[in-house]
Amino acid sequence: MSDERASIEPYALLVLGSVGYFLFTFSWFSLAAYLVPVIEELGLSNVEAGLVTGAVQLVYIPLSLLSGLTIDRLGSRRALGTGLLVIGIAHVVRGLSGEFATLLLATFLLGVGGTAITFGLPKLVSELFPPERSGTMSSVYMIGATLGSATVFAVARPLVGPLLGGWRPFFLYTGLLVVGFAAFWSAVSRYLWHRAGPAGTSGGSDHRTFSLDSVRSDLRSVFTHYGLLLLVVVGTMRLFISHGLSNWLATILEARGMAPALAGTLTSLFILVRILGIVGVPAVSDYFGTRRLPIVTCGLAGAVGLFGLLIAESIWTLSASLVLVGTFAIGGLSPLVRAIPIEMEGIGPRLTAVANGLIFTVGQVGGSLGPFLTGAFRDLTGSFAPSLVMLALASLVTAVAGYFLGEPDGTGKPTGAGTGD
Fold first, then answer.
1. Same domain, 304 and 390
2. pTM
3. pLDDT in tens, 124-144
4. Residues 187 and 223 in one domain
5. Which residues have a Cβ under 8 Å from the Cβ of 313 and sit 6 or more positions away?
6. Is the pLDDT of residue 361 over 80?
7. How many domains does the chain have?
8. In Å, what is the CA distance from 328 to each residue of 88, 334, 354?
9. Is the pLDDT of residue 385 over 70?
């Protein structure tokens, strides 16, 4: 890295981008935090409540690829500013909603803006930092995302909401805060990019067009890339396990005779320990210069943890099992899945956003199937044991995919594997 790029500006941009991710997940999960009063005031049915709380994930399935293609052409700076503006406006509209349809459409819009954050930040890292540091740098914005979703449940209803007068003003004022931060980002990021000097990118367009030939070329590159397709498997299994276990964990623990309060405490622990993996696994991966081994390790550790949940009899073995799954199978893989495309031959910074778009397009299907199949196996068998075995096998699939993935620079691949270029 040049002296200019070793300055403080790239780190300042990354921190500001991470604040943007914090605000996105804070806004996103505000509805879940206030779901009971929203249901009561708007008269939502359980089906309507379920649809609106899952609306953001639904947006990612059809729009992830399109969002990635767009961000690769606009650049991260513009994409993040636009995405934050859309999120803020959508959250304000949610606060003004008088019926289900308006709330649903506003939440869909919030998801559209969210794709710009999800895929814009990997693009930001690819533009500001060398590939070998992408894992550690990606962990920074993932901490922002995790803290945003955790913070809103801690402060929305018990602390801030009562001071503001309920969910409507809470949504309104936090939405306006996001709009204000979008304006702040647009102004400050432009200045910081200019300060980065000639070695920095503009954060804007790379002069590719939206012509059919250009789009086809990008899609062909990602859909035929051997390593990226294996990474799609890793990302899909991660979301399959994350959503499948997170949505059912408290119920699984209570079904084993655990008190609801203790089950809730362990579920919170399961969420918080992900930060250990988000911070630790990419740092170790960057230090030793390997991606293959951490993915295999995360998959194997996750499988051990999930099988541990199946046979654990004490609170300590249950806790240890949850720490393994949360730290490795979910937390540790999260930044790596986003960062590895930056280093891949045939993908690199130029196609980082659309590569992440492909990962999330397929991954969110896995994220939807995880909770569904976990519940379905419980209904069929009357036990959560088959569901836990299913999730453990998914973690083993992660390890196998990581083994065949090789290193992003093309080393360590099985004989005959190509990049798809």
1. yes
2. 0.84
3. 999 999 988 999 999 999 999
4. no
5. none
6. yes
7. 2
8. 33, 9, 25
9. yes
